[in-house]
Design brief:
Carbonic Anhydrase II; mainly beta; 4 helices; Carbonic_anhydrase_a-class_CS; 13-stranded mixed beta sheet; Carbonic anhydrase; lyase; metal-binding; single chain; 11% helix; EC 4.2.1.1; binds zinc ion
Length: 252
């Protein structure tokens, strides 16, 4: 995930092992993403998430190609107004977490793309929705893992819309505005997830980020991912990092 839209040219997805030269935190012991071994996770009962009403309304977002990925923030003229109404709390986190951005990670084909792996398996894409507690500065990221639709499944329309819009942003700093319903983008059972503490998965790779990785997958059409691969970047994910002595919890 990234929490800002600034871009610099000190890093790329071709050489992620070089990031630590400019961003020392990338060599830390609590980095993300990780491979989650489900049978080694520890059961824990977290209280439910509570989402603000705004989650279920269409809001205007601005997508930008920042040279590394395509990030969606609330559009400028709604910023300040809507951002204070888009939040969640609960689920064992302290305080109220406000929406910062959402974006997608993908790979060159369906066997690559997700940042987190589950039992050694990498999925075709992974979405991040980034939140921040404005009082403490604590970051929390929701991760949604994607599968490609089979013949009996319909893809998630809201993510198709993201792919359509994002694939038009062929040059760095290109932007486009688009309406999205966050609750439709976040279409997974919110009582079933993994939880651990890690880092941003893009430089500066700052640690202390609370990760929630939802178990239920979101289906997306292969054409949508192909649009991104062909028109934008072929590879937008960081490889897995060592777990070291962290614990991954599961709520299910
Ligand atoms: Zn991300």
């Amino acid at each position: 995930m990234s929490c800002t839209t600034h871009s610099d040219d000190y890093w790329d997805y071709d050489n992620p092992s070089e990031w630590q030269k400019h961003f020392p935190a990338a060599a830390g012991l609590c980095q993300s993403p990780i491979d989650i071994h489900a049978h080694k996770t520890i059961p824990h009962h977290y209280p439910p998430f509570v989402f603000s009403d705004k989650y279920h309304s269409n809001e205007l977002f601005k997508l930008i190609n920042n040279g590394h990925q395509v990030t969606a923030t609330l559009a400028d003229h709604t910023y300040g107004q809507s951002e204070k109404d888009l939040w969640f709390n609960g689920s064992g986190l302290t305080g109220r977490f406000y929406f910062v951005n959402f974006h997608l990670h993908w790979g060159r084909d369906d066997r690559h793309g997700s940042e987190h792996e589950i039992d050694g398996y990498q999925y075709p894409a992974e979405a991040h929705v980034v939140f921040k507690n404005q009082e403490t500065g604590q970051l929390a990221v929701f991760a949604y893992i994607f599968t490609v639709c089979n013949q009996t499944q319909k893809g998630n329309k809201e993510w198709e819309k993201y792919c359509d819009a994002a694939s038009q942003l062929t040059n760095q700093n290109d932007t486009i505005q688009c309406m999205f319903d966050l609750s439709q983008l976040m279409q997974a059972n919110d009582r079933q997830f993994f939880r651990y503490t890690g880092s941003l998965t893009t430089p500066p790779c700052t640690e202390g980020v609370i990760w929630t990785i939802f178990i239920q997958k979101i289906a997306i059409k292969e054409e949508s991912l192909n649009q991104l691969r062909q028109n934008l970047m072929r590879k937008v994910y960081r490889p897995i990092q060592p777990l070291n002595n962290r614990t991954v919890f599961r709520n299910y």
